[in-house]
Design a protein that fits this description.
There is one protein chain. With 366 residues, this protein is an alpha+beta fold. It has two domains: 2-189 and 323-363, no CATH class; 191-260 and 295-320, no CATH class. The protein has five helices and 18 strands. β3 and β4 (34-42) form a beta hairpin. The longest helix is centred in the C-terminal third of the chain and has 35 residues, at 280-314. It is elongated, with a radius of gyration of 27 Å. It comes from Danio rerio (Zebrafish). It is a single-pass type I membrane protein.
Length: 366
């Protein structure tokens, strides 16, 4: 551990309860493969990483060393402070106490965000076992979470769209391991999003399940924050192609994963101009059969496409589980879907405050 002098104490967060404030980082922090430049610090022992700030920050898209009902306003010695040295961003909840359980003792813990994506949770003082913290008034969570927002048809109107948030991955820590002077480190795994070319996307041996959407010039498995855009541009279908398909006027110019027929190819019987019929009784059945077959094939294709679109929209987490974060010890957690259900704490966003209550912060170097 290296001791850093801390200079930024958020005066409002240090004097209020259930408040959150957005802070800009001096570097791009890769979180689940997404480059995050702004985060939201909450009094309740966690960081919100989503782009859209709302009152239910505790639901998902969080980095939570110890999410609980902390009330920094209880004491002038309780602070929420942070430090950004260009390579690491540290947030420390210093001597904070649980709302209506202040006599249980003061908690001091922090999270460290490293430029390379590594996340560290450090715990200095944990006076109460985490499993004994009441979650009735406020969720109690320790770990990481990310989600995507999908636009789905509203039950009230088929024309209206409603935003639904889906948690596609969560990492949870065994809270019995959280004691005084303990620490956890999370190391990011490779993701499809880090590939910038089709060849890297489809041929990399460090990732799997990746597809290249030439329309968006993006590599993805379809399960990340950009899922809605991936769906809107039909990337699930386009990603079935190969890199060779995107050259020489292929999908790049037609937004399709398939090559267009060469002009030298003769037109199909349906498109061929009609010619004078010399033996009508023999020609009519042949053309009728061909046309009927083509129409039937088109109807079947449209039906299967509509069925696929309906299935994707009603099962947005149908893709293979997305494993991104790895905890020390090589443990993995499966993906899961989250709909906005149940009760979560309501948070209000505040502006950046001043700097008070000087103290120090201990941060593990990345």
């Amino acid at each position: 551990m290296e001791v850093h002098q801390i200079h930024r104490v958020h005066s409002i967060l240090s004097s209020t309860h259930r408040q959150a404030s957005r802070v800009a980082l001096t570097f791009d922090f890769p979180f689940y493969g997404h480059q995050v430049r702004q985060i939201t610090i909450a009094t309740g022992g966690f960081i919100f990483t989503g782009d859209i700030t709302h009152r239910m920050l505790t639901a998902t898209q969080y980095i939570a060393p110890l999410m609980a009902n902390f009330d920094p306003s209880y004491s002038k010695y309780s602070t929420v402070r942070y430090l950004d040295n260009g390579d690491t961003f540290v947030v420390q909840w210093d001597k904070v106490r649980l709302k209506d359980r202040e006599t249980e003792g003061a908690f001091t813990f922090q999270t460290v965000l490293c430029r390379n994506g590594t996340i560290v949770f450090n715990y200095k003082d944990v006076p109460l076992p985490v499993e004994k913290i009441n979650s009735t008034e406020h969720p109690v969570k320790v770990g990481l979470s990310d989600a995507f927002i999908a636009l789905l048809s509203s039950p009230q109107s088929s024309d209206a769209k409603q935003k639904t948030i889906y948690e596609y991955h969560r990492v949870e820590i065994d809270t019995t391991k959280i004691v005084n002077n303990s620490a956890f480190e999370f190391t990011p795994l490779p993701t499809c999003l880090q590939h910038t070319t089709c060849k890297q996307c489809l041929q990399s041996n460090i990732t799997s399940g990746c597809g290249w959407c030439n329309t968006l010039q993006r590599c993805s498995d379809g399960i990340d924050r950009y899922r809605q855009e991936w769906m809107d541009h039909n990337c699930f279908e386009e990603a079935k192609g190969k890199c060779d398909d995107y050259a020489h006027g292929g999908p790049e110019s037609s937004n399709s994963p398939f090559r267009l027929p060469s002009p030298s190819i003769a037109p199909s019987p349906v498109a061929r101009p009609a010619s004078p019929m010399t033996e009508g009784e023999e020609e009519v059945p042949e053309h009728t059969a061909i046309i009927a077959g083509v129409v039937a094939a088109l109807i079947l294709l449209v039906f299967l496409t509509l069925l696929a679109v309906y299935y994707i929209n009603t099962h947005p987490t149908v893709a293979p589980p997305f494993y991104l974060m790895q905890r020390r010890g090589n443990n993995y957690w499966p993906s899961m879907k989250f709909r906005n259900q149940g009760c979560h704490s309501s948070y209000a966003e505040v502006d950046l405050g001043g700097y008070e209550k000087e103290n120090f912060i201990e941060a593990e170097q990345c």
